[in-house]
Amino acid sequence: MGEPLNTKVSEKENWQRTVDVVVTQDELKPEIEKAYKKYQKKVKLDGFRAGKAPIPMIKRMYGPRIEAEVVDEILPKIVTEAWKKENLRIVSLPKVEQLDYQPGGDLKITFTVDVEPEFELKKYENFQLEKQVYQVTDEDIEQALADLQEKNAIWETVEEGIEKDHYAMVDFQELDESGLPVIGHKFENEFIHMKYENGELSEIGRQLLGAKAGEKRVVEIVQQSNEADRQKTQRVKYEVTVKEIKKKILPEIDDEFARDVGEYDNLEELKEALRKRVQESTQHKFDMALEHNLIDEINKNNPFDLPPSMVEQYLDSVIEQLKSAYSNQPVDEQALWEQYRANAIWNIKWRLIRDKLAEMHHIEATEDEIRERVAEVAKSSGQDPDRLWNRVKNDEDRLRKYRHDVLEQKVVKFLLERQKIKEKKVTLKDFKKKKIVEP
Hints:
By secondary structure, the chain is of the alpha+beta class. The chain has three domains: 6-114, 2-Layer Sandwich (Alpha-Beta Plaits); 128-135 and 257-304 and 361-432, no CATH class; 154-249, Chitinase A, domain 3, CATH 3.10.50. It contains twelve helices and eleven strands. It has helices at 25-42, 55-85, 138-151, 203-208, 255-261, 267-301, 308-325, 333-360, 367-381, 385-393, 396-416, 428-432, and strands at residues 6-13, 16-23, 95-100, 107-114, 128-134, 154-157, 166-175, 181-193, 216-227, 230-249, 420-426. Strands 6, 7, 8, 9 and 10 form a five-stranded antiparallel β-sheet that branches. A four-stranded antiparallel β-sheet has the order 1-2-4-3. A hairpin with a 2-residue loop joins strand 9 (216-227) and strand 10. Helix 1 crosses helix 2 and helix 7 packs across helix 8 (333-360). The two termini are 59 Å apart.
């Protein structure tokens, strides 16, 4: 079948095409003759040696079956050749709707296939957007220093009894009304922080004050239980075994602390580094929020339908990833479909719009840009850039992912330059007052 196929395409939906294909008997003949010769070599007919049976006799006896086998064998190739000839961007497996063939006649095939939807980009410029610009304050630095202080705390075992701010590792054994252990209601290696809330310790904390490691105490606490769809308050007794007591010692925040946590000569250098880190990390989140809002506006202002198969494939991929990540837990696939469906549609639409914009405005990801992106990833993950690049360039899937990442960055940059963006300065106090949306 060296000649181009006779094909006709009609639009069933914006995202679906019906393709009619006609393969003439002259085009089929070489494949059919080849099949008869192949069959001749293995068929045994009375009065003829193996491989010597006349082909006309084989046609008369087995022709319809042999030619049906030929059609079955070449059908996938014909369908593939047909949609490629019509330059269809298919997103599903073709489905043969009709097949008509009689020995000696033409082969007629009708199949449907889902394709990337065609759509017109109506609006993607001049959106009114707000960009939050983060202003680092002394309060940010104090919080960052406190976090570092906590991270570098020293834990010291306590010999005396439990006091305020101590941490205790304990075992809980629930007791029944007669004071005997309730089978199956033992909870081991639980941590209790003797922390004051609203000026006082928790109920269990008050009952454990002064207890030493190895000591057992019976405590009574209030618990909520559901009975007959009603909440009931009850007091439950536990035997608590204190296994270990520790206290947390925070280092002094001074020049020595700065030298211990990094390559800083003094506290001021550490503060300056923290200021830069806080500003960059928080601003990055705000920038991501701006990009998300922009994409959301573009998606809303350019509506079009997606083929169900695209959404199904996306969700199948998401669910498989979740099942792999949580292999030890049951997965409600239907619930996940419902949970992620809107997000799937949002992402698929944006990908199609992004690719259309890139095509319209001749935006491409060059090899140098892809390699630069690989180097950034290598640096952030502590890998050698050249080694990572050598692995990526020989892995088509990974290379495609990096290419898409770079293309997305360039398309988003192109779009941001064409919007009406108003900057708004924000600080940590704005977060606390809930005047801004946290990134």
